[in-house]
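subagent[fold] <- orchestrator: predict structure for attached chain, return tokens only, no commentary.
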Amino acid sequence: MDIRSQVCMVFHLDKCIGCHTCSIACKNIWTDRKGAEYMWWNNVETKPGTGYPTKWENQDIYKGGWEKNGDTVSLKGAGKFKGLKNIFHNPHMPVLDDYYEPWTYKYEDLFTAPEGDDQPTARPISLVTGEHMDVQAGPNWDDDMGGSPDYARQDVNLVKLSAAEQESMFQLERMTFHYLPRICNHCLNPACVASCPSGALYKRGEDGIVLINQERCRAWRMCVTACPYKKSYYNWNTGKSEKCVLCYPRLESGQAPACFHSCVGRIRYLGVMLYDADKIEPAASVSEDQLVDAQMDIYLDPFDPEVIRQARLNGIADSTITSAQNSPVYKFVKIWKLALPLHPEFRTLPNLFYVPALLPTMATVSNGVYDSTSQSLWNGVESNRLPMKYLASLFSAGNTGKIVDVMKRLMAVRLHRRGVTVGDLNSAEISTAMNEVHMDADTANAIFRLTALATFDERFVIPPAHREESIEMLEATGDVKGNTGFGFKETPARGL
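subagent[fold] -> orchestrator:
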């Protein structure tokens, strides 16, 4: 058992209002620089939609992530031999047009235009070339164009749906959408780290945050190809790759990352989970229908005495163990089983989990009577306007059973709280829904509390940084047993 600590995140999609405040907070702090104009370390997509960069989920195009190779996995589009073959031309790397060409406006034209009958306008100019340009796309273009043939209908997750199911999603009375905020997942099995020829990418031992050493980066850009979530970017001005750093300077001082702190909908949760590094390769190598369960099995019970003993032996501080015990992420992911990873079939074992969105209530009035049965209000999980197959393509590698179980749990909480606050539902309906998922009233209330009424300290349980131990790890040359601290039993290798 090789126990390590990992900072993990949960995004509750039922609460996201698509305001992009998180994106702007990140942009102003980290990517408001030359060469980084097109980068959005945090972006908010509209689903169904093509996302940013366009069709990033389609690994037939971008060749990101890992693929099962017998009892292990190998990089799909990067690595020593594949990288060497594509060293001068990489056909699987997104180009600027796949993101969008950043622009500003020539506002001086509003003041310097000659007198005339026409109203002067500020023409868009490229932030890359400085030339006039016609704006064709933006980082959240699908937000305004959702449902159109160019965006929503091009969502790669629709491929697994039948033509009839796809068409029903775009009938006016059945149309629905939800927002999908994305940042770097700081994966347990990061493809970007494994792909880097210069060893510039690394995973911090103390908290699992994936970073890029700017001094070692040689702009091979294999990380851009290898990351299936396309959260590693190339700065064309500095000639270096960049990515989300989870605002580690803020975490080290006890503050939440900027996108978390600024979130208007309070959809974001951050905490520590303990995991067994020995299980990473076996978990990444299972069949697709077992990927979610295999990943969940990696994370350990922080209250288990044996886990605590092994964690201490591996150099994990008691304060980190306590933070893991109070982690809201552990509750959502392991105890309540409400949060799932995004595209687990990429086999990177991401540490960002999502609580899927339930649809809004839609009660009916018949003969002057307000129908408030649960079937009228929510029409049942299986007949959800957003098909279970679609959500399964996003969050469970196609395993619809996992999605149905999560949605029924969420529905049970909703019915219970409706009964408490409004009291217009049949108690038998509520009991049936809760018994089906083996949930009691105390659990439902606890889920409601952390979802709707949680304080700042309950949403963000940030462990002390213990930077002194990190410095010792960096300075250590290894003892006679080959230990280098923080659970590394030998010099850390990239990838698995």
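orchestrator: received. Logging for downstream: Residues 477-496 have pLDDT under 50 and may be disordered. The two ends are 16 Å apart (CA to CA).
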